[in-house]
Amino acid sequence: MNISRYEQRVLHVLALGGYILHERDDGPKITSVTCYTRDGMILSDCTLIVFARLRGKRLIESRLGGAYRISKRGRTAVRAQLDNRGA
């Protein structure tokens, strides 16, 4: 599966215990997303476009309308990295 650098960063944060909170306006469409690390920091690489790609590839999932977390498919797709901060 072809996964971009930004998608890898988000998946790596989610694999380490992070989550993505989403917001909706009045309708069913998601208008904004915020990715949190397990330490409570915000990951700025998680944009609405990256979120849509991850969701379309079924690498992340939400259960019972809660926060989005990494799926089983996402765990197998993420590459192991010692330090995710490098380029």
Task: Write up this protein.
It is a single chain. This protein has one domain (5-76). 30% of the residues lie in helices and 24% in strands. The chain has helices at 5-15, 48-56, 72-77, and strands spanning 19-24, 30-36, 42-43, 60-62, 68-70. The strands form two sheets. The protein has a three-stranded antiparallel β-sheet. A two-stranded antiparallel sheet has the order 4-5. Strand 2 (30-36) and strand 3 form a beta hairpin. The chain is globular and about 40 Å long. The two termini are 20 Å apart.
Brief overview:
With 87 residues, the protein is an alpha+beta fold. Helices cover 30% and strands 24% of the residues. It has one domain.
How would you state the average pLDDT, rounded?
89
What is the number of independent domains? 1
Cα-atom radius of gyration = 12 Å
Number of helices: 3
Q: Which structural class do you get from the secondary structure elements?
A: alpha+beta
